[in-house]
Amino acid sequence: MASVAFKVKSKNGQQVLKDLTSDSTVGELKSFLCSISDISFERICVLSGYPPKPLDISDNEKRISDIGLKTGETLIVEEKAATVDSQGTVMTPAPHIKPIENGFTSHVTGPCRPGILMKKVVPSDNSCLFTSIGFVLNGNVDTSVHTLMRQIIAMEVASDHDTYNEAMLGKPNAEYCAWIQQPSSWGGAIEVAILSRFYGLEMAVVDTLNAIINRFGEDKNYGQRVFLLFDGVHYDPLYLEQSDGGVQTVFPAEDMDIYQEAEQLAKEAKSSRQFTDLNKFTLKCMVCNKFLTGQVEAQKHAKDTMHTSFGEV
To answer: Is residue 189 part of a domain?
Structure first.
């Protein structure tokens, strides 16, 4: 009879449950989870797995091991929404959670907006930053939006030579303006900052390499915030898949619950090494088709050959 431990996420935060064994019943598990989450026995809903899916906890006499739970798993505890049928009887259906297509998740709880914070995987075509921003703005993946965004950036840079000087850009202003409009050119911090101002949104970049969030437009007091995930090389947008099937990509700037969930997502991604090591990732020179390992090697190749077009591999 082995002891088991679970990481529990609920509206009361995160806790570790250690007081059960593999022979403990589902009813005992539910009782402990009710005490942790302040949710009644009849209305508790438990999700687990990757992606999270509702557990069948209808039979209180079953053992924990019978429903497939193993020590070390994360349990997400939600309260079933109460509804009333035509006879006035209170019903408590389980929340609808759609399966996740790609990537890792971080659970978001709250009385008004339960759901799952997820990443939407976009193509690795050197325009992933712009495609990601297009998704959080419009709710769909459109790989053509980079053309307009590149033009916006080039016009902004060209109009302010003092701010966008060679020291900031790493190349002369005019050269940069021509470079950023090429489909093979990657976007980064400079481009995020410009697009944040243009669209009037705070853009929070969740950096899984360093487990931090870099906020662009934080000093502008924008009323809304969007989230982008960055693994060291590639950008993907984050969005909230709500329990009623809705999708949310733009959040009030004062909503710190979703911000804290994004912070937790960054920490979990770093701990599970869901980031790209810049010293080891592979690039392909799009001019001579040579494969290069790491950022330093790519920079040296560019200096030696004047080839500046690289693709992700």
So the answer is: yes
